[in-house]
Design goal:
Largest sheet: 6 strands, mixed
Distance between the termini: 51 Å
CATH class: Alpha Beta
Order of helices and strands: HEEHHEEHEEEE
Shape: globular
Number of domains: 1
Structural class: alpha+beta
CATH topology: Nuclear Transport Factor 2, Chain: A
Helix content: 25-40%
CATH architecture: Roll
Strand content: 35-45%
Length: 154
């Protein structure tokens, strides 16, 4: 009887630790762990489009690295670049493989996948890294995002 009860306590503790990274409520605001935040914006990208997700996830001082182009600094400049590239024909989603953070800064990296919105046809895939910081509300916001094409094994 004691063994069963002890196992239940251990299982409950493991589940509680796992859920602690997901989200919590502080000062009436829902706070998500870093990996959960990254996944949240990926889901937003799937549903609302890449542009909406990027504009929501970047800090006002954020920098977006671009392929074959100079970095884009500041949310106003990021918005200008994104609005020049409609996202209605494709779906961008990503999955964080790893996340780590301190009190105010963190980073995630993982893989991304690009498909057509119409029929899900493969357009590309690659890896990404995002550096995050907590804003004054305690929400994780991207301060630097970069990615590259390809997922070939070494």
């Amino acid at each position: 009887m004691m063994k069963t009860s002890g196992y239940r306590v251990i299982i409950i503790a493991i589940v509680a630790v796992f859920l602690a990274d997901c989200c919590r409520v502080e000062d009436g605001h829902v706070k998500m762990g870093l990996k959960a935040t990254d996944r949240y914006y990926s889901r937003m990208s799937e549903v609302q489009g890449r542009n909406a997700a990027f504009l929501a996830m970047f800090d006002s001082t954020g920098t977006m690295m671009r392929e074959n182009g100079m970095p884009v600094q500041g949310i106003g400049n990021i918005k200008t670049i994104l609005t020049q590239k409609p996202d209605t024909s494709f779906t961008l989603k990503w999955e964080p493989m790893f996340a780590d953070s301190s009190d105010k800064l963190g980073y995630t990296y993982g893989t991304w996948n690009l498909t057509t919105r119409k029929n899900g046809e493969f357009l590309g895939e690659g890896t990404y890294t995002t550096i995050w910081k907590k804003n004054t509300l305690g929400e994780w916001k991207a301060v630097l995002d970069t990615g590259n094409d390809g997922l070939k094994e070494n």
